[in-house]
Amino acid sequence: MDRRGARKDLLAGATFVAFGLAFAITASTYEVGSALRMGPGYFPLVLGALLVLLGILIAVTGFVAGEGGEIGPVPWQAAGLLVVALIFFGFTVRGLGLVPSLLVTVFLSAMAGRHARVVPAVVTSAALTALSVLIFVIALQLRLPYFGPWFG
To answer: How far apart are the C-alpha atoms of 104 and 126, rounded to whole Å?
Structure first.
């Protein structure tokens, strides 16, 4: 059995474990509480533990199966677009408001795909923005402005 093929799964599992540990360690600095009286650190701690568990499961499964192809090149353009999209949303959601910030963020994220095209990305960003407004602003009644103060 060739263990070199398991490299993808081992790296993916290690990534999940690293993110899970980061969440769990950060969550431990907040009040955790209990399952009945959850504190602000409860959900990140549970999420971190689940990520660690999932990462271990992926790594063990990959090691046991020993299958998989080469890792291949890193899609730097896609990774860059995703990072730019998240940073854009974080810096503009208060100034532009939910709708424009979310439209641009989802559009940039949709364009990060390998075979991305403009029209499906525009449709996707419009649909997800409308769905987000329906869920968060209308259904959950969160006080998120549609358009921010930068629009006057």
So the answer is: 10
Contacts of 49 (CB under 8 A, 6+ apart): 20, 24
- E-strand stretches of 36-129: none
User: What parts of the chain have a pLDDT lower than 50?
Assistant: none
- State the distance between the two ends of the chain, measured CA to CA, in whole angstroms: 65
Are residues 14 and 45 both part of a single domain? yes
* pLDDT for res 85: 95
Number of domains into which the chain is organized: 2
Let me know: does 27 contact 41? Beta carbons within 8 Å. Answer: yes
Per-residue pLDDT tens for 56-66?
998 888 878 76
Total-model pTM: 0.66
Q: Note down the domain range covering 50.
A: 3-65
How far apart are alpha carbons 140 and 52 in whole angstroms? 31
